[in-house]
Specification:
This protein is an alpha+beta fold. About 20% of the residues lie in helices and about 45% in strands. The longest helix has 10 residues, at about 15-25. This is DUF4177 domain-containing protein.
């Protein structure tokens, strides 16, 4: 059976990026991509993790 995924998008605060990503990683999330935010100044991280119903 194929793995199913859940996704999250989170804003990244430049002064606290490592702590934010470390916390999400500790909760089982894998960073997929970081892109500029909609306002053009901030960053948004896209994360994924397997769902419980694999």
């Amino acid at each position: 059976m194929a793995t199913t995924w859940e996704y999250a998008t989170i804003p990244l605060l430049i002064h606290n990026t490592k702590a934010i990503l470390d916390q999400w990683g500790a909760d089982g999330w894998e960073l997929v991509q970081v892109v500029p935010g909609p306002d053009g100044t901030g960053l948004v991280a896209y994360l994924k993790r397997p769902t419980g119903g694999q």
